[in-house]
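Attaching the record inline, Q. Sequence:
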Amino acid sequence: METTVTFSDIQSAAERLAGQAHRTPVVTSRTFDQIAGCQVFFKCENLQRGGAFKFRGAYNALSQLTSEQRQRGVVAFSSGNHAQGLALAAKVLCIPATVVMPSDAPQIKVEATRGYGADIVPYDRLTGDREAIARQLAAERGLTVIPPFDHPHIIAGQGTAAMELFQDVPDLDVLITPVGGGGLISGCATAAKAMRPGVRVVGVETEPANDAWQSLRTGQRVTIPVPDTIADGIRTTSLGVITFEIMRKLVDEIALVTDADVIEAMRFMLLRMKLLAEPTGAVPVAALMARKVDGVAGRRVGVIVSGGNADPAMLLKILDF
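Structure, as predicted:
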C-alpha cells in the first residue's frame, strides 16, 4: 500500500465523490469574527451525508475495491462517524459492511450506522482492541479492513473538504481542523499547502486527548490512555503511522482546548449561528473563541466543522445553563 498522499490523489478522490458527497456550504458570522478577532470561514461538514466528513474518505476507499473485495464485504472500527460514513458508502455501493464500535458510543451514531445496513460488533474501549477485533473478523470472513484514518484512500478523500474550501475562499491565511487519528488534517493539509503554499495549518485537540500535541513536540508517535473528553470523535490514543508522517511535514501547530471551551463553542454555534456541531466539530471553533491559536489576529481563517452527530442527551445537558 502507498504510504504517501499527493494533491493529485485528492483531485482523483474529488472526481469519484462528484455526485455522491455533498459540496457543503461555507458560512460566516460577523459576531463570531468579533469574538475571535479574525475573519472566519466555516466549512460545514456537519451538513455532509452521514453527518460528517467521514463519508468522503469511506466512499473514496470503497469505490477503489476490486469486484471480489466488494462481494466479500468490508469491516471497519470506529467510535461513530467513520462507522456511519462507511455504512452509508457501503450501502450506496452495495457492499456488505461490519463495524466494530465501542459499547459506549453515542446511541444516535449506533442507530444511524445500523440504519444504513451495517452489522455492528460492540466492544469495551477500555479493555478491548478494536483494530485486533476487526482484523480477526477480516481473517475469519475474508473481509477487507477499512481503517478510520491511517489509509491513503481515506486521507485523500478527507482532503477534498479543504480542496473545496480553498476553491470557494482561495486567500485563506490559516486552516484549522480537529485532530483525532489525523486523517482529516493530513488530507486537508496536503490540499491546503498545494493550493496555497504559505497557509498555516493548525490542528486542535482537547487537553485530555493531546497525543498529537505530544507527538509533534517529541518527533515520535506518542500513545496515551483512552482520553476522557466530551469530544468522542477524538478519543483516539495515537496518530496513525501514515498520518503522523504527513503531519510532521505539513502541520504547523497543535492547539489545545478544554471541554468547557468546546461546550461554549457548541452553544454559540447552535444558538447564534443555527448550526448543530458535535463536540469534535466544535473543537477548532472553541480554539478561536478562547483565543488558543496564535497569530490569527486580523487574518482570514478557514475552519473545518467536522461533524454534527451530537448525542441528544448530551445536548440537553450543555444547553441547560
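Residues 102 and 128 are 9 Å apart (CA to CA). The chain has two domains: 7-52+151-319, 55-145.

More tomorrow.
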